[in-house]
């Protein structure tokens, strides 16, 4: 690993060149380098960008060839069957914006085979880790830490609205009735408290003196659907009352939209870093999450339009990037271009690229059918055809 502490020529405190009463930068670099425990800094892309001496020893043990370059490879983030099967510590720290509680992990590269790990976000989209020696026989490792259990409710809004609890899917006609509309509205307003009058306007299209009681009753109905075993007098874990309105509990409710945007951002960072493997990994996760437009089963809900349109831009960028990243695998590239073509039915550039890829695969008849359908669609809608002709494209190999 070519990871070293940052150093400069500033002297130690008390020596020439150091500000009085304040450690010099060289002194701080020495503290970092010789800290008793392993310390490393990880970028938002999950790349390890700095490690002190003790951390480098662990990283070098992990792979003598020096290939342990991400926190996930070292600690087992998203590894099936492990305590982090659904999580990445870097992403959790950036998402919460706070220091994470300490977690005991089995890490074969550690001298003792286990580490106590904690992480905290830094300014500039990075996370600092402290790694302390642990024991594989530590009884505390047998229980999953409560803070890592994460959300108790999973809401899928990319496509038709779906809800899952730890016990399994929560289904029923309520999803297509006012309680489901309320849930969808709270998802679309998930970063703020939705006022009562706005909820009434979204669900019933009207506000008035009776709006507060109607909304309160609707909220109670939604809570009963999401938490059927909740005692009547207990507060809700998922739908919170706040300052004259209601909001979803971000600590208990996982929403696919947030994960989608996080993966898209991670993929963009990986592309900037020329990390093709990481970019494909992150963007393919995002593509799997984006089943369809935001709340596709609420096409006429005006309150969903803004969020739906906002999310289409990163979704289209994601598909374009995946098509480009898979140019050497035309089958995969074509599949992403086809999805993009359905989102952009009149885009000359997208459909030209798709037809060219189909020709590259030797599927000339399919390419010709697609071209004719595209030309007909443009002529019917705009009165003119494509800005390219099928004969202009490279012939099939």
Secondary-structure map:
Layout: H1 25-33, E1 38-43, E2 48-51, H2 53-62, H3 71-75, H4 89-96, E3 103-106, E4 114-122, E5 126-133, E6 153-156, E7 162-165, E8 168-169, H5 178-188, E9 194-195, H6 196-204, H7 211-226, E10 239-242, E11 245-248, E12 253-255, H8 256-272, H9 276-289, H10 302-325, H11 330-343, H12 348-360, H13 364-382
Parallel strand pairs: 6-12
Antiparallel strand pairs: 1-2, 1-5, 3-4, 4-5, 6-7, 7-8, 9-11, 10-11
Helix pairs in contact: 5-6, 5-7, 6-7, 8-9, 9-10, 10-11, 11-12, 12-13
Proportion of beta-strand residues: 5-15%
Number of helices: 13
* Residue-averaged pLDDT: 86
Instruction: State the low-pLDDT regions, or none.
Output: 4-14
Radius of gyration: 26 Å
Strand order, largest beta sheet: 2-1-5-4-3
Count of individual beta strands: 12
Main beta-sheet annotation: 5 strands, antiparallel
Structural class: alpha+beta
Order of helices and strands: HEEHHHEEEEEEHEHHEEEHHHHHH
């Amino acid at each position: 690993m070519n990871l070293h502490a940052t150093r400069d020529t500033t002297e130690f405190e008390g020596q020439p060149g150091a500000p009085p009463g304040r450690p010099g930068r060289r002194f701080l670099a020495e503290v970092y380098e010789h800290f008793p425990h392993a310390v490393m800094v990880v970028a938002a892309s999950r790349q390890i960008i700095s490690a002190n001496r003790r951390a480098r020893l662990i990283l070098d043990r992990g792979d003598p060839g020096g290939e342990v370059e991400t926190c996930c490879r070292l600690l087992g983030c998203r590894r099936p069957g492990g305590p982090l099967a659904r999580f990445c510590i870097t992403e959790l720290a950036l998402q919460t914006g706070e220091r994470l509680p300490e977690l005991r992990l089995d890490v074969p590269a550690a001298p003792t085979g286990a580490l106590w790990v904690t992480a905290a976000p830094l300014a500039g989209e990075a996370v600092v880790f402290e790694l302390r020696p642990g024991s594989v026989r530590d009884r505390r490792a047998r229980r999953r830490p409560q803070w890592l259990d994460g959300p108790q409710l999973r809401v899928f809004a990319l496509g038709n609205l779906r809800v899952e609890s730890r016990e399994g899917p929560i289904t029923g006609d309520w999803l297509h009735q006012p309680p489901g509309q309320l849930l969808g509205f709270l998802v679309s307003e998930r970063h703020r408290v939705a006022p009562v009058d706005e909820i009434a306007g979204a669900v019933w299209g009207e506000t008035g003196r009776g709006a507060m009681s109607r909304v309160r009753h609707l909220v109670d109905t939604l809570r009963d659907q999401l938490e059927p075993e909740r005692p009547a007098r207990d507060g809700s874990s998922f739908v919170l009352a706040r300052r004259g309105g209601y909001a979803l509990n971000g600590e208990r409710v996982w929403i696919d939209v947030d994960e989608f945007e996080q993966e898209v951002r991670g993929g963009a960072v990986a592309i900037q870093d020329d990390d093709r493997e990481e970019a494909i990994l992150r963007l393919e996760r995002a593509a799997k999450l984006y089943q369809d437009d935001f709340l596709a089963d609420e096409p006429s809900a005006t309150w969903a339009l803004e969020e739906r349109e906002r999310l289409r831009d990163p979704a289209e960028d994601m598909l374009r990037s995946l098509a480009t990243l898979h140019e050497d695998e035309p089958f995969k590239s074509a599949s992403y271009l086809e999805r993009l073509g359905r989102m952009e039915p009149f885009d000359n550039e997208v459909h030209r690229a798709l037809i060219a890829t189909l020709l590259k695969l030797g599927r000339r008849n399919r390419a010709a059918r697609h071209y004719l359908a595209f030309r007909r669609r443009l002529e019917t809608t705009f009165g003119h055809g494509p800005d390219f002709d099928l004969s202009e494209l490279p012939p099939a190999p």
